[in-house]
């Protein structure tokens, strides 16, 4: 959630990306830089200074509070804070890096390349939510991007993927909305996961636009009052739980209008190689930490369609970055491909025809969910080493 957005915090991963102008939103630039080394299971930029961020209910001040310009490794830990479970590095209301779902005792890390200036370390719900981090003009020593041409091509190719999926989202949503307005429940149910699939595939970008994501994809409980709840999940409830489309025409029209607003905004985002790599990690984390529980599509139980779309979005990142990783670290790229195949294989177990089986505790028992979670987490951990290797 953007620090300036007056909405309740959502317990789902968010991948905020800044457009090139005019629309003030948060941005995740998890730009780990230079060569990487693995310490305690996390990738770090070799030789870069480290900043410790201890999260408490009182706040999350950085230590040290001043570092040299260049790559910086952030080490975060929740030290008993129950009301605060995330910390973000922010400049001018843009989120440059963050870690979420850090419940008491949990730790996380990310790397950024920071320019001279003043930043804030922000921890929502703490008594002191913002603390200052200053970056001096003096540069720290760090290797440069080892594959600049390949990374630039990766960004270009991934952008093309995002724009194609965003463009396809509009007519798919129009078809779904038309079925809702026509009262054709069976057709609307069939089209619901199709339209949402395009949205889930571009989730790292779609979630960046503050209120717009909330209006398109909020779940029950994400909004302060039921009367303000709109989007896919509001219509999902009407179709599967209420069994009627009565009074849903206005919601269907608003959903179409919202995805039409989203489409041109997706084309304005600025992207970096390390940023999209870390976006893939965060998206996999969301799948493993919350979506596998079935909370996302709680009425339709079409969660497996979401998983497939999310995994496809991650695959688009991997495919785009493959030339760069093949040059920089072919063994890491090989491991990613093997682990990705394992995740895809697990999803294929639940396919039924052109779609998937209903996602319930009976059809996909806990043992299978744990197996999928493990494979997703292993893949996410490996991909987390990409950003420091290519930035």
Verbal overview:
The structure is a single chain. The protein has 391 residues and is of the alpha+beta class. The protein has two domains: 36-139, Cupredoxins -  blue copper proteins (Immunoglobulin-like, Sandwich), CATH 2.60.40; 148-390, A middle domain of Talin 1, CATH 1.20.1420.20. Helices cover 45% and strands 17% of the residues. It has helices at 148-181, 185-201, 203-206, 211-217, 232-242, 249-266, 273-289, 303-328, 330-348, 366-383, 386-390; strands spanning 36-39, 42-45, 50-55, 62-63, 66-78, 87-91, 94-99, 107-114, 117-122, 130-139, 351-352, 355-356. Strands 3, 4, 5, 6, 7, 8, 9 and 10 form an eight-stranded mixed sheet that branches. Strands 1-2 form a two-stranded antiparallel sheet. The protein has a two-stranded antiparallel ribbon with strand order 11-12. Helix 2 (185-201) packs parallel to helix 8. Mean pLDDT is 85; it is low at 1-41.
CATH architecture descriptor name of the largest domain: Up-down Bundle
- The CATH superfamily of the largest domain is known as M75 peptidase, HXXE motif
Outline, from the CA principal axes?
A: globular
Main sheet overview: 8 strands, mixed
Compute the average pLDDT: 85
Identify the CATH class of the largest domain.
Mainly Alpha
Radius of gyration: 21 Å
Strand content: 15-25%
Termini separation comes to: 25 Å
The total domain count is 2
Offer a quick outline of the entry.
The protein has eleven helices and twelve strands. The protein has 391 residues and is of the alpha+beta class.
């Amino acid at each position: 959630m953007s620090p300036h957005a007056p909405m309740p915090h959502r317990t789902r991963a968010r991948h905020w990306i800044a457009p090139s102008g005019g629309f003030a939103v948060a941005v995740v630039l998890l730009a780990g830089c230079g060569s990487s080394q693995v310490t305690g299971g996390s990738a770090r930029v070799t030789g870069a200074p480290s900043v410790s961020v201890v999260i408490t209910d009182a706040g999350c001040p950085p230590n040290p509070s001043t570092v040299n310009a260049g790559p910086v490794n952030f080490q975060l830990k929740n030290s008993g804070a129950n009301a605060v479970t995330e910390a973000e590095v922010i400049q001018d209301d843009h989120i440059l890096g963050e870690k979420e779902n850090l419940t008491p005792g949990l730790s996380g890390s990310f790397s950024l390349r920071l320019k001279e200036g003043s930043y804030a370390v922000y921890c929502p719900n703490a008594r002191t939510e913002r603390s200052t981090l200053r970056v001096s003009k003096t540069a720290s020593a760090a290797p440069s991007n080892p594959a600049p041409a390949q990374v630039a091509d990766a960004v270009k190719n991934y952008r093309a993927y995002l724009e194609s999926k965003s463009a396809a989202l509009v007519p798919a949503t129009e078809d779904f909305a038309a079925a809702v307005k026509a009262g054709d429940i069976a057709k609307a149910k069939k089209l619901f996961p199709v339209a949402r699939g395009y949205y889930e595939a571009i989730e790292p970008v779609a979630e960046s636009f503050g209120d717009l994501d909330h209006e398109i994809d909020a779940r029950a409980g994400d909004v302060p009052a039921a009367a303000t709840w709109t989007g896919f999940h509001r219509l999902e409830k009407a179709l599967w739980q209420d069994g009627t489309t009565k009074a849903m025409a206005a919601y269907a029209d608003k959903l179409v209008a919202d995805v039409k607003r989203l489409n041109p905004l997706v084309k304005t985002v600025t992207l970096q190689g390390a940023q999209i790599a870390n976006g893939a990690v965060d998206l996999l984390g969301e799948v493993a930490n919350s979506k596998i529980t079935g909370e996302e599509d709680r009425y339709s139980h079409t969660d497996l369609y979401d998983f497939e779309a999310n995994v496809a979005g991650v695959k688009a990142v991997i495919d785009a970055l493959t030339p760069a990783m093949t040059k920089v670290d072919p063994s890491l790229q090989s491991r990613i491909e093997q682990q990705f195949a394992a995740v895809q294989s697990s999803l294929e177990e639940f396919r039924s025809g052109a779609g998937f089986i209903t996602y319930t505790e009976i059809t996909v028992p806990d043992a299978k969910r744990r197996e999928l979670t493990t494979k997703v987490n292993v893949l996410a951990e490996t991909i987390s080493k990409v950003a420091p290797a290519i930035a």
